Fold these 4 entries.
Entry 1:
Amino acid sequence: MAEMAQTIVIKIGGHATNQLSPEFFAQLHAWHDAGKQILIVHGGGPQISSWSKKLGLTVKKINGIRVTDSETLKVTQAVLLGLVQPMLCQKVTASDLPALGLNATGQPIIYGDYLNQKLFGEVGQLTDINQDYIAAALKTHIGVMAPLAVNPTGHLLNVNGDVAAAGIARMLGAEEFILLTDVPGVMVKDHVLSSLSKQKATHMFKEKLITAGMQPKIQAAFDALQNGVEKVTITNKLQSAGTTLLKSQLVG
Ligand SMILES: Nc1ncnc2c1ncn2[C@@H]1O[C@H](COP(=O)(O)OP(=O)(O)O)[C@@H](O)[C@H]1O
Ligand SMILES: CC(=O)N[C@@H](CCC(=O)OP(=O)(O)O)C(=O)O
C-alpha cells in the first residue's frame, strides 16, 4: 500500500448530495487550507432508483446492494456520470475549490470483479485502484469519484458507494473516512449512537436494527478500520459528531 499522508475520504450518499450546506464547503476549505488531500466518493442511489422507475425498470436491492441488470447499469452510468458527478463538481468549483471528476470511462480508476453475477448481475467488488492516477489528481484537486469499476475485460460494473469508498480509503491509507448520509448516525429508535463497537454492530444486525442502506455502510466502516483507517464517522453533517467508529474500539 502506497501511503498517501493526510488524505480524507468522504463518501456522500445520493440524498446528501442534494443537501450540502455552507458548513460542508467551509470544512472542505479548512481541510484544503491545512494541506489535506480530499477525495469525495459519491453515491446517487435515490437518483438511480428514480430514473429507473421513470424508464419502467424494476428497482430491487438485496441487503442494500442494487440488483443491476444491463439496462439498470446503463441508467446507473448515465445518472452517476451525467447528473450526480457534474452537479457535485459544479458545487465544489462554485465554492472556490478545484474539483476534478474521476470516473471509469477514461483511464481506469477503480478495478473490480463481479460480486456475485447470478445474484446481483452487473455489480462489482473492488479489487484495486489506480494509485498513481488518484495520487496525482489529489495533489492539485479535490477528487470527485463515482463508484463504477472496470473489470479485466474492460466491462463497467456498479459498485455500492459505501463499499467502494471504504476500499479506496483503505488502499489510499486515508487517515479519516467519513460517510455523509441522510441520517444523523447509526440509530436505535430516535437515539443516535455516539460510538459503535463490532460486537454491538453484530448484535444490531442479528436483531435487524441495521437494515437497508445502513448495512453496506457499517460493513464498509469496519472493513476500513480493520485495514488501517483510524477513524470512521457516519453523520449527516460534517460539523456533527454522528457515530464514530475507531480502530481502537474494534473489539468489545
Ligand atoms: N440503525 C439504523 N440507523 C440509521 N439508519 C438506518 C438504520 N437501519 C437502516 N437505516 C437506513 O439506512 C439509510 C441510510 O442508507 P442509504 O439510504 O443507503 O444512504 P446513502 O444514500 O447515504 O448511502 C437511512 O436513511 C435509514 O433508512
Ligand atoms: C451496487 C450498488 O448498490 N450500487 C449503488 C451505487 C450508488 C450508491 O451507492 O448510492 P448511495 O450512496 O446513494 O446509496 C446503486 O446502484 O445504488
Note: DSSP finds nine helices and 15 strands in the chain.
Entry 2:
Amino acid sequence: MLLANSEIQAVRGNPHSDLSLENFCRQSFSQVSAKCAMIALLLVDDQSLYLLAKSTQASDFVFYSQPESVIQQTDIPLGDCYAVIHGEKTLPHIAPIFVGNQIRGLLVVEQQAHNFPFADILKPLPLHLDNYCLHLKVIDSQQQLLRQEGLLQQAQQQNLFFSQLLKELHQLTIELSKLDSLDELYHYTVKAGISRLGIDRMALFIMDKEQDTYYGTYGTTETGDVADESYFQNKIPNVPFVQEALTRKDYLSIWHNASILHNSQEIGVGWNAMVALWHGDETIGWIACDNFINKQPLGDHQKEVLILLAASVAQMIMRKQAEEQVIQLNKDLELRVRERTAELAEAYQALSDANNALRLVSSMDSLTGLANRREFDEHLDTQWSLALKQKSSLSLIMIDVDFFKQYNDTFGHQEGDVCLQQIANELKSCINEKSDLIARYGGEEIVLLCPELTTAQTAAMAEMCRKKIARLNISHPVIGIEDKVTISAGYVCLTPVNGMPNKNIIRIADQALYQAKQTGRNNTVQAMITD
Ligand SMILES: Nc1nc2c(ncn2[C@@H]2O[C@H](COP(=O)(O)OP(=O)(O)OP(=O)(O)O)[C@@H](O)[C@H]2O)c(=O)[nH]1
C-alpha cells in the first residue's frame, strides 16, 4: 500500500498538499467542463480509489485536498474503474495514469464531446500525479518524523519524570536513614509515598516471624491522610496476588480492576499493587498501594520506584530493628548494672557497718564502755609518734580505785562491776573527747592519755577526776580516810624524745600512782621524771 489510511488522513489535514496538481486540474477541467458531463481525477492507492478532483456541469470544480473515498460518489463508474485498474478492459472514458509502471490514477470523463481533448489533459497528469505522490511521501515522512519526535519528547518527559522520582527517592532514603525510631520510619515512608511519589494511598505492613499474621503500621485514609493503623492485624491472605508478591523478590504485584479495601472493607474498585519487604531470602512485610482517590493508572516509573523504595525501606527496618534491640539490651544491661551496683553498695555498707561494729567491739571494754587495753596501746603508739614529731607534750593519768578488793568482798563482784561502770562514766566527762582517750587499762585501773597539756593542766585534770569520783558518794565499807569510794592517780606530762620507749610513760605514771597509794590514797601525785 502506497499510503496508509492514517497517512491519507494526514494529507487530508494539510490543505496545501500540492498546489501544482490542483492548479492543473482547476485550469484544465474548467476549459473542458462544457464538453463533458463530468470529469474526475482519481488516485489509485493499493487497489483503493480516492477522489482528488472533480468537475460536473451541475457543480463547480472541487479539488479534494483531503482525498475522498469514491464509495460515496454515485456518478463515478466504480465497476468500470476497477476493470481498468485490473487491466480487464480498455474504456474510452476512463484512462489509467501510469507513474513508472504502476497505475497511480484514473482520469474519468463522462459523456465527452467528440472533440474532447482527452489526450491534452491526460498527457501532463502522470508528472503532476507523480509529484503529488512524492509530495504525499514527503508529507508521510514528515508525519513520521513528527510522530517520532513526539514519541521522543514523550520518552524524554518520562525519563525526566523518572529521574526526578529517583532523585526524590534518593533524598527520601537519606531522610529515612536519619530517623530515630522504627515508628518514625514507618510513618515517614507512608507520608512520603503519597506526598512525594505520587501514590494515592499507601500502607506498610509487617509480618510476624512465622509469616502467618501481618500487622498494620501506618496507612492512608479514604481522604488521603496518613493514619496510624497499628491496631490492625490479620492472617496473611492465601490469594495469588498476595502470594505472588510475597514470593517474588524485586517484584511489584498488580491487580487491576480489583476491590480496593480499607480495614478489610471494600470501598471501591481500581488497581492494587503490592511489593514485599525482604531481608535476605525472607519477607518481613510489604508496602501496599492503590488508586482509590485519583483513579490514575500506575506509571512504569512509579512501579520501578516502588520496588526501589521497598528495598531501601526493608534495609532500614532491619537496621533500625537491630539498633533498637541493641538500645534495649544496653538499657537492660544498665538496669542490671545499676541494680547490681546498688546491691553491692548495700552489701558494702553492711560489711562496713559490721566492720565498724567489730572494730568498736574489739577496741572497747565491754563492762565500762571505755577503750580497752589494745586500743589504748595502739593509741599510745600513734600519739607518741605524733608528739615526737611535733615535739609536743603527752600526758598520762593512771587511776586506780582505792580498796576495791574490800568493796568486792563486801558487796559482791556484781556490785563491784556497777561501781566500776559509775566511775568510768564519771571519768568520761573529764576528758576532751576530740583529743583525749580514756581506757580501761586492766582490773580497776583506768588511764587517761591527753596530748598537748601542760603539767599544770595535767595536774588539774587528775585532781578533777579524783574530786568527781569522791563526789559520787558511792559508799564504801572500809573505814579509812573516807567512807566512800575514792580513787588515787599518778600522772606524768612529758615531751617524747628520740630513743625513749613509749612504755616509759606508763611506767612513770604507774610509779606516781604507787606513790599516791603509799601516801594515803584519794590523792594525786605527779611523777618525778629522772633520766
Ligand atoms: N568487780 C570487779 N572487780 C574487779 C574487776 N577487776 C579487778 N577487780 C578486783 O579489784 C581488786 C583489786 O584489788 P587489789 O589489787 O588488792 O587492790 P585494792 O583492794 O583496790 O587496794 P588498793 O589498790 O591498794 O587500794 C581485786 O579484788 C579484783 O578482783 C572487775 O572487773 N570487776
Note: Residues 1-18 have pLDDT under 50 and may be disordered.
Entry 3:
Amino acid sequence: MKKVEVAVGVIRRNNQIFITKRPQNLHQGGKWEFPGGKREADESMDQALVRELREEVGIETHGQLPLLVIEHDYGDKQVVLDVRIVEQFSGEPHGQEGQLGAWVAISALSDYEFPEANKVIIEKLLERIR
Ligand SMILES: Nc1nc2c([nH]c(=O)n2[C@H]2C[C@H](O)[C@@H](COP(=O)(O)OP(=O)(O)OP(=O)(O)O)O2)c(=O)[nH]1
Ligand SMILES: [Mg+2]
C-alpha cells in the first residue's frame, strides 16, 4: 500500500494549541486533529504545511520547527505524519472550512479524541512542558 505523506501543524501560543475537528465523512472523521493535509507531488513539506494551514485555518505560517515524524498503519491507509510546531504565524486560526476549532491547553489535550497515530505527538508535547 502506498504511504500518504501528511504535513501536520501544531499551532502553539504560550501553552495552548489550536486543534480542529475532522469532518465526519473523511478518513478518521469525527476526531480532533492538528490541522494539515497531504503533500502534493510538486511541493516540499514546508510548502504543503503553509498551504494547508492557509486553506484549513486561515493563517499565514512564518516559521516551522520539526517535532517528530510518525509512520502509522491504519489498516485501510498508511500515513507518514511530518509534525511541525508553528509558533510564528499571522492571522487568527479558525475553522475556515466550517469545522470546529478550539484553543486547548497542552495539559488538556488528552481529554480529546485524536486518531491513534497522534498519541506520541501528545506525549512529546507533554514532556516539553513538564
Ligand atoms: N491533518 C491531520 N491528519 C492526521 C492527523 N492524525 C492522523 O492520523 N492524520 C491522518 C488522517 C488522514 O488519513 C491524513 C490526513 O489527510 P487529510 O484528510 O487531512 O488530507 P487533506 O487535508 O490533504 O485532505 P484531502 O486531500 O482529503 O482533501 O492523516 C492529524 O493530527 N492531523
Ligand atoms: Mg486536512
Note: The mean pLDDT is 96.
Entry 4:
Amino acid sequence: MMNGALGAMVVESDPYMPHPEECSADSTLSVVVVGASGDLARKKIFPALFALFYEGMLVENFQIFGYARSKMDDEAFRDTIVETLTCRIDAGEDCGKKMDTFLSRCFYQQGQYDDATDFQRLDARLSVMEGSLCSNRMFYLSIPPKVFISAAANAADQCASRTGWNRCVVEKPFGHDSASSLELSQALGKHLQEDQIYRIDHYLGKELIENLTVLRFSNLIFEPLWSRKYIRNVQVIFSEDYGTEGRGGYFDEYGIIRDVIQNHLLQIVALFAMEPPVSLEAEDIRNEKVKVLRSMKPVEMEDVILGQYTKRVSKAHTYPGYLDDDTVPQNSITPTFAAVAMFINNARWDGVPFLLKAGKALNKRGAEIRVQFRHVPGHLYRSKFGADPDAATNELVIRIQPDEAMYLKINSKVPGLGLRIENSRLDLPFHEERDRELPDAYERLLLDVVNGDKRLFIRSDELEAAWDLFTPVLHKIEELQAQPELYPYGSRGPVGAHYLGAKYNVRWGDLSYSGNGSSKS
Ligand SMILES: NC(=O)C1=CN([C@@H]2O[C@H](COP(=O)(O)OP(=O)(O)OC[C@H]3O[C@@H](n4cnc5c(N)ncnc54)[C@H](OP(=O)(O)O)[C@@H]3O)[C@@H](O)[C@H]2O)C=CC1
Ligand SMILES: O=C1O[C@H](COP(=O)(O)O)[C@@H](O)[C@H](O)[C@H]1O
C-alpha cells in the first residue's frame, strides 16, 4: 500500500496522507504519466502540466516522467510531447525558453504495466533525480481500464515515495456497471488508500462548472428560486459535431450513456441540485452531492431514447457513419446518442424533470445547462406573447463550452412607442473584456491534485450511487438488444428526444425557434 510499509513520514494509524506542506520547503515533485504515449496524455495532460509550469504553479524542483510500453528515449519522448504544447498564455513572453526548460525536466521510462521490475527501474531513476529532497509523487493512470489495476499496484508497491505524499489519478471509465465498479474500487483499495485516489471527471474542472456553485451560493437572487416552486425543468445538454474518430474501439464497449451521461452530466446535476454544503471543504461538498444522487430515481427504460449516427454525403464531403469506423464491430447497436429523463425524490426537486441529452456527430459542439422557470402566474402580458407561453418563459443558460457564458432570458419592453415585449438576455460572457484564456479543465484538476484538494474529484460512494442509477437500465438495454434510432451525421439527433421532452412538457431549449424561424436559443 502506498506510504504504508514504505512511508517513513506517515504514522500508520493516520488514515490521511501528508499534504505538501508536510514536506519542508525543500521538496520535490515527481509526476509520472502512465500511458504517456497515448492520446489523452499528449492532448491534455502534458499541455496542462506545461501550462502550470508556465504560470509558476509547480514547485521549483520537479520532474515529469512518461511511462509506457512504446520504445522511446528521452529525446524522442520530448519530440512527441512538444507537438502539443502551446504558448497560449502571453504567447510572446519568453515562451520558447520556458518550453525548453520544461522539456528538459521531462523524461521517459519504457516498461510494461504489469512488470514489477520495470516499475522498480522507474523508482530508481526517480530517486536519483529527487536526491535527498523530500519527494511527493503523483501517478496519472492514463491507460485503458484493463491495465489499471496492475499499473496501480506496481506504482503503489514498487514506486511509492518513501518521504512525501503519493497520489494516484484514475481516469474514467470507473467500471462498466455497479458490480465492475465495485470490483475496481476494491482492487484499487488493496494498494491505495481512498485518500490517495483522485478519480477524475474533467467536466468538474471546467470553468463554468466551478462557477455553478458560486452562482448559486454567493448571489441572493438565485438560491430562493432554486427549487420545484419556481423551476419547471432542468436540461443538461452535451453535443459534439464529430464522431468517434479513432476512439471507436473504446467507445463501442461503453456507449454514450457510460461515456458521458453517467459521469459528466450526472455530476453536473449533482452539483446543480445539491443542498448548500456546510463549507467549501471537499468532504462537505461531496456529502451533499452523494445525498442528491441517492435521492434520485434509477432511470427507467421508458425514459430513455437511444440513437446512432449514420453516414451523410454532402456535395463537399462524406461524413462516415458510426458503423463505417473500422474499429467498430459491424452491426453494432451501441448508442452514440441518448436522452434520459431523471427525477430527484426530495422536497426541493420532487416532480421536476431533469432531462439529460448527449450525442456525437450532431449539428454543433456544445455543452450547457438550461434552467426553465415556471410561467408567470396570471401572466398580465399574456396577449403580447401569442399562443405560446414558452415564448415568455424565463430561462437561465449556463454555457459550459464553447464561448463560456451565463445568460438569463427575461422579458422586457422594446424601446419606443407602443407596447411590444421581447424575450432578451441579461448576459455574462466570459471571454470578452478578459485578457487571458480560461485554463483548461486538466490544468485546474492537476493543480488540485498537487494541492491535495479533492473537491472536484469523485468519492467512492458518489461513484457507487451514480452507477446504481444507471446499471438497471443499462442491463435492460443490453438484455433487450434495444435498437437505436438512426440519425444522420451532422443532424440534430433522433426525433425520439422530442417525444421524451413532450412526455414531461419540456421543450429542449437548444432547439427552440421563434415563430419567424430564427434561433432564439
Ligand atoms: N482520450 C481521451 O480524450 C479521453 C480518455 N479518457 C481515458 O483516459 C485513459 C487513456 O486514454 P487514451 O490516451 O485515449 O488511451 P489510449 O488508447 O491512447 O491508450 C494510452 C496508452 O496505453 C497503452 N495501451 C493502449 N492499449 C493497450 C492495451 N490493450 N494494453 C496495454 N496497454 C495499452 C498505449 O501505450 P503503450 O502501447 O506505449 O504502452 C497507449 O498509448 C483511458 O482510460 C480513457 O478511457 C478519458 C477521457 C477522455
Ligand atoms: O470524457 C469524454 O469527454 C470527451 C468530451 O470532452 P470535452 O472536454 O472535449 O467536451 C468526449 O469526447 C469523450 O467521448 C469522453 O470520453
Note: The radius of gyration is 24 Å.
